[in-house]
Amino acid sequence: xxxxxxxxxxxxxxxxxxxxxxxxxxIGSFLNVVVHRLxxxxxxxxxxxxxxxxxxRESFRRVFHAEAPGGLDHAAGALDKTLRGLKxxxxxxxxxxxxxxxxxxxxxxxxxxxxxLALRGRCSACGTRIxxxxxxxxxxxxxxxxxxxxxxxxxxxALLWCAAGAVLIALALIDWDTTVLPDVLTLPLLWAGVVAxxxxxxxxxxxxxxxxGAAAGYLSLWSVYWLFKLVTGKEGMGFGxxxxxxxxxxxxxxxxxxxxxxxxxxxxxxxxxxxxxGGALREGRFVPFGPFLAGGGLAVMLVGLPRVLGWMGxx
Length: 315
Prior knowledge:
Layout: H1 2-7, H2 17-54, H3 57-64, H4 70-84, H5 114-118, H6 133-152, H7 157-178, H8 183-198, H9 207-232, H10 239-252, H11 257-277, H12 290-303, H13 305-311
């Protein structure tokens, strides 16, 4: 086995900032697909759940202590038929198309950043503008991957953090667009951190610290949520925020929870005030907290928890 490992090429060139930046460009292109399609896939599933609930006469009887009206069966059947008539939707299929004209995007029109520049930000078939957010996400992912490579200096942990960083970017963008943090992303991220710590793949993080961080992350925001609700009668945040902070705690440990929350709160307040001043606050006058939690977690990881704690006078 030692001879086999010795024969393998060194990992350092593959984990260099330039190499991981190129990987980040490709991953960023895929993240654009995830951010666009995953919420739609979830909404389809939710409507399928609605159809199943409408057709569940026993559940209606248990809840309302009465027989379900016949109209519910008709509505359930119509909804189910409509859902079955939709074209299949997944992360890999169907292939990407222009939402305006249906033009199938060819491989050379889908090269990260370069294709957008070559097309001058417009569909080659109908000329519809392609949002600048697509290449921005690709560049952001590339920069994050390069920063992670610089932070970990060629250690294999860089690949783990690249994977976690990609999930955090997807979660931040989905939450910004929809105010939803999908369990299908937050929960695997949480358990991946615990498993990585248990296997000793995250330098300086023990299994106990990972589990403690997950618990501290969840319970801290859970407590704030219920305190705020008891005092005001309103919900100040969603349960997805609890799970996201728990996931960050699993990757960074319990000591990182307060710095993450402080960073996220300050950044969220600045962005919220700027949006209020510019009249950009959405209906209900709120800003989702998930993107700032993700940013806080990535900032703590890139700077290094010991240095962050030192800045706060806790080292």
